[in-house]
Task: structure prediction
Amino acid sequence: MSEKEKAAQAASAGTALNTESAAHGIEAQQLALPGIDQSHLTPYHTANLREIRVIRALLAGDCSREELDHIADAANVPDLIGRMRSSACLDLPSVRLPVTDCDGAIVYRGRYRLSAADRIRLAHFSQAGGQA
Result:
């Protein structure tokens, strides 16, 4: 059985295709996650370049506010995150981790991340090379 036939059989069975198949021009399908209703999770699109840069960074991993300020080329990323949360219905949770500041005091620095639902809504960014 050829690689294309295997990929077509896997797609019709509802299973994910491997990256090798995707590299051959065969489109991969999002697997349904057991117990998670995805019908309301429409893909998120934006033309805002700052939002696109933040999304690309968060798809790669957790980022601090300072890192996102630099990546987005913005001075107020919390405002940008707030707008993405309200208008785009993205979760974008922040985890607060203890760190020691320059004076030796323990402070809590937030790191933004994508929730599982965010990753589903933003899956097309990684498939399309980060394009909105």
